[in-house]
Structure formats: structure tokens, C-alpha cells
Model the fold of this input.
Amino acid sequence: MRPLALLAPVLLALVVALPAQGPRESTSAREVPAGEAALAELRRLASEAPESPDALADRTGAFRVPLRDRLDRRTIMDVYLPEKLRGAIVLLHGLGRDASELRDAGFRRLADEQGLALLAPAARSLPRDARNVDGRGPAGWLPEWWSYGDDGFAIAALDWLAARRRFDRDRVFLVGHSMGGFGTWNVGLRCADRFAGLVPISGGISRREFLSRGPDREARRVLGNAGLVPILAIHGDADPLVPARFDRRSRDAVAADAADFRYLEVEGGRHVLDLDADGALIEEIGTWIAARRRDPHPRRISFRVRRGDPGRAFWLEVRAWRTREASVTGRVGEDGVVHLTSSGVDELALHLDPVLFPPGKGLKVRLNGVTVHEGVIAPDPAAVRATWEQRRDPALVAWATLALRPE
Done:
């Protein structure tokens, strides 16, 4: 796919928004309109990508690469690239295991059949000043664990591939087993706009539930984001290490609210399930994955976010909190009016997705029942760059950002 084609929706929208002009003057003799500057910025971004071409850019098959996350940790990532690359699966392994746990299972078959890269980083301990909602890393009671934010190896793996190869960003999946199942639930629900689906296997939401028969209500609030992304949760009913009740609780919590959620409990299944290439379970996973694509432009989104967690989901972002946890719901009406409700939010950003909010047209925004904006917004090159830096995903680039403060 040509680089410019990836940003085509944004480019087209901005072209339409630009006013008709006569013969062009020299740019030194006039001020460049913001719309033109935003368009030029998008063209520059498109021409630069992928950003890090190297000796691996055209490589296929299995190999290993070094990987660094935003917590400044280093690890090794096992990579498998099929001949025809269409999408990707990020694989998170279990405690005390390594990337081969999932890389060498039936996922290699899915990679070849569906054109999916396999990206399997090795877990490391969290920094001492880092904290997941269910505990810390080396200062806690487990030697290694996945970071639950967008600063860890799961997102770094995806960014590594995006910097080197062209692929369909609407066909990216997060899959994990055991410790990786915990990571899949928590990373996937906090970074839902990056994935077409989540497949947690033999996992759970919180490590604290090992110490209590009851649910960890604080950690489980993230399940309020389950409506943002499809989920296939898998657990053996005879798992002696991570009890099936962990995922049964999640099933019961999200089944009524999530638009696309399925819980698969394997009768007699232990902690390590059969994921061989010719097994029924990998066939089930492959069928589920093949039927799903991310919708990068949803007209309705609803999510919760703790202070310190990634605050953005698609075209809404919590930038400042009034309380420890904030919740936001956004809906684009058929008449184009944006209806927002928020709780615990001090500042909210509305990122103007060109598919949902065409430039050049008036925009009306209501927040908590009050009209907070009505009028035309000029395209902003700074917003183009900022939203690109956040996700490095052309479908999530905004042509302007509107900052809002609830009354």
C-alpha cells in the first residue's frame, strides 16, 4: 500500500475544507492558511512513513529483535512475518515462560492463513516506581509482569512493526496466556482503540483475587471499557492455577454491556490448553479472528479511565481528572450534534476525526446537557502532529482538537 493512501481519508477531508483559490501566490508573499498547513503536515507524515526502514523491512519468516518500551526497559521479541502481511497478533506469554509458549503453538498456522505478523516480546519486571492497578513489579510478590498501560512491551511491539512495515491497522489482535491473559485484559481494555479484538486465555483481571474469594472491585472497573473492543475469553473449567471463577466474574460483568463478547469455557481444561495447529481450539480462535475488524470511527464510545492510565479512546481523551477515576460517553447524532457526558473530568479533548466530523462544516457540541461549542473550526497542523504522535495510526489522526471543560 502506498504511504499517502493510508492518510487518504484525512487528506481528502482537508482538501474539501479548503476554500477555492485563484492562481497561487508565492508563500513568502502571503500567510499560509491553517488548512493548507495541516494538509502539508499530513503529506509530510505520509511521505516519511514507515519511519525506520532497516535490514528487517523486507524480511519474512522467524527471527528475533531487540525491543525497548517507554519505561526504558529492554527485552527480546520473537517475530514471525508471513509472506503476505495483512495484520498482526501481539502475543503475551505466561509467568516463567517465554515467547515460544505461544509463538510455536497453532498461531503460526493462523499467521500464514490470514497474513498476520506474530509479535511476541519477552516479559520483564516493572520498574520500582511503576504500579499496575493490582500491584507493583519487583517490589511485589512476582518477579515479572506485563505493564497495563500504553508504556509497556505490548504497545512497543505494535509500534515496532508500524515503523517498518505497511499492514492493516484494523486487523490487529492482542492474545495472551496466564500472566499474558491478565495483560491482555488490562492492556487491551486500556488501549482498546488499537485492537480489532482481545483473546485472554487462562487469565484474569487482578492478581489480588488470588488472595481473596471476592472480586477486586477497583481493578474490575476497567471492564466498563469492554464495549470498545471485541473479546473472546477462554478458560479451562479445571484450571488449578488461575481459577475459572476469575473469567466467569468478567463474563457476568460485561455480557450485558459489551456489543461483541464471548466466553468459551473448555470442559476439563487445565491451565495449559491445547493450542496445537490441528486442534479444535486454535480453529475456534482463527474463525473468530477472521471475522473481526476494528471500526476506527465509532459513532458512540463509552469508557472509564483511572488517573495515570492512558486517557484516550478513539476521538475522546480525558486530559485532566477531578477525581481518581473518570468516565466519559460520547455520541455523534444523526444530525451531526456531538453529545458528551462526563464524570470526574476536569478537561476533555474532542479529537476531530474527519470521517465523523468533516472539516469546513459547523460543529455543535453539548457536554452534560449544555452547549459548549457551536461553529466552524479551522484545521490545525499542531493537532495533526499531536494525534499522529499519540498513536502513529493514520485512522486515528485528527485535523483539529477541541478542548472542553465541564461546568
User: Anything to note?
Assistant: The CA atoms of residues 296 and 395 lie 6 Å apart.
